[in-house]
Amino acid sequence: MSAKFVLRQHVRKIGQSEVRSVEQISQLEPGKETLYSVQLGADFATREWVKESELEVVKPTAEQQKQYTRLSGTLQALGHRHRSELPNGATSLSLNVTDGRVVVEVYDNQGKKMGTVPNDKTSPAFSFALQQFLRETLPDPDGIVAIL
User: Fold this and answer.
1) Alpha helix positions (H), the chain
2) 48-86 confidence digits (pLDDT tens)
């Protein structure tokens, strides 16, 4: 029996409204029901193990998907405009919200985190552009991804 959900996928416990993300997957015995460790956002204290049959997929509304696409495009444009300030080999940016703090992470083509922006080397223009962008409402509790 293969896993129905994947890591970082948004799920909801059936009958509940809170959106959680899958953080770990465990299949104890072949043929037995898969267990998922899920949590609310980045709050480790809310992590719990749940049976596959107790979860359902959370799908974004058409409006949320439209807003995500627009914000991802804006983040992508910022990355292109300020490419010289990103680490050499950067291929994607991921805007994440952790404990109410917004961070833009930079990744290479292998998915390895290379750093974050803004940092102490970020120009005032790029910092200002990011600050303006971060004032936008995020449609996804895990943030926005942009391919460079």
Assistant:
1) 62-81, 124-134
2) 999 999 999 988 788 888 888 888 899 999 999 999 999
pTM over 0.85: no
Report yes or no: 6 and 57 within 8 Å, Cβ to Cβ: no
DSSP state of 33: P
Residue 105, strand partner residues: 94, 116
**For the chain, which residues make up each domain, given as ranges?**
10-57, 62-147
CA–CA distance, 32 with 3 (Å, rounded to integer): 11
Say which amino acid occupies 78.
L
Angle at 44 between CA 40 and CA 47, to 5 degrees: 65
Spatial separation of the C-alpha atoms in residues 148 and 52, rounded to whole Å? 35
Say which amino acid occupies 69: T
